[in-house]
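Researcher: Sequence of GTPase Obg follows. Predict its structure.
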Amino acid sequence: MSRFVDRVTIHAVAGNGGHGCSSVHREKFKPLGGPDGGNGGNGGDVILRVDPQVHTLLDFHFRPHARAQNGKPGAGSNRDGGHGETLEMPVPDGTVVLDENGRILADLVGEGATFVAASGGRGGLGNAALASKARKAPGFALLGEEGQTRELVLELKSVADVGLVGFPSAGKSSLVSVLSAAKPKIADYPFTTLAPNLGVVTAGASVFTVADVPGLIPGASQGRGLGLDFLRHLERCAVLAHVVDCATLEPGRDPISDIDALEAELAAYTPALSADHGLQDLADRPRVVILNKIDVPEAAELAEMVTPDLEARGWPVYAISAVGHVGLDTLRFALAQKVADHRAATPTPVARRAVIRPIAVDESGFTVSPDPAVPGGFIVRGTRPERWIKQTAFDNDEAVGYLADRLNRLGVEDELVKQGAVPGAPVTIGDVSFDWEPQLPSGDAVPVTGRGTDIRLDRTDRVGAADRKVARKARRHHADDGLGPVDGPDDWSGPDGDD
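Model: Prediction complete. Tokens:
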């Protein structure tokens, strides 16, 4: 038996990037031909794509875990690893993607609309890509990045033109079955539908969709019953139609009180898509009142009695019998006209363009703060430092040195000095903790300078070329005057004291 599932939680895991390769080119008579390790391939993404052939989230209910393929590692001879295959998952039109905190990430409407649920990790660089003038033959490569892992909530908000609202057993499912080819469950005993039913209605040249929304009772907007589970299916409806049971035998029930109770629930419910999509509140949508079951004589009399009061509110009223097929043609064409008026007044939606907000390349992107759990320790946080930690193979000393160079160029070491870090202070970046050893010479205290520089190298007693040239001219001048040779900076005596 088929099931209708309109809310699921999925666990999306993107593919990991492949590791870079550390390799040296070798051939006959040329054993050291330079680095030739290839880059690792990128991991595959997990993508949600709207498919018009999918109408429920049932597949995700039974298979909530989605994992994309990992990237392949690089190889020698400058061979890059293959990229992981992207995993595309079809979702029905009208699917809304939310994060674990309930924030809307995407509203997938229209065939082909896509959303990247999880991004694949980037492949690591091989040693050929890491070669530079200062590092001719790197003996290491970078590891691939891990793919993104996300917990997402998918909600299906039916894309319908007319939404039928009413108390249980008011005849909404019966009305959908006679207006369209849909075949919802119908019985001659009271029960409430547990899943929205969607039908396509044809009225002359007009075609529109109708959906019944079950489970609406007083208190539905606060979560009573099934109200919150199905009220969201009304968010996209252009016209709301009250289906009223005029033949009910329950005490205290009448068409006016039923409509007032449901109107209070619609006014109290705030659509989640209103702010982002410019949709009106449910209380401001066009209304139609459908008085059902007039094939019962008492119901026909009651419908005729309450019609003037309802029309006084400015709402069109239609008395029908879904079982007896009475008044259906008039209702069908009236709903088609309401939908046509809404479509004419609503501007044609423009396809949304992807907005890319790249991070500035010159942004420092890190913070250094004292570690509350370790006295004298520090924690470095930032996207790039944490990513570099994951890319480093700590069993390779050269790779660790390359990581230290990257952190120093980013300014992490300077910031640690400003924060008062001393040699041997425990520093934590991501999941790795180590004892910090700054690039300082041993012995006397020396002011901190950039990595690879030493202020003591600037202090030297060696005579420069300009001074030697001046001394040479002075000696020649003394020799011409007959004053004899003058010892200068560039005088040199051999091992035996001879020139």
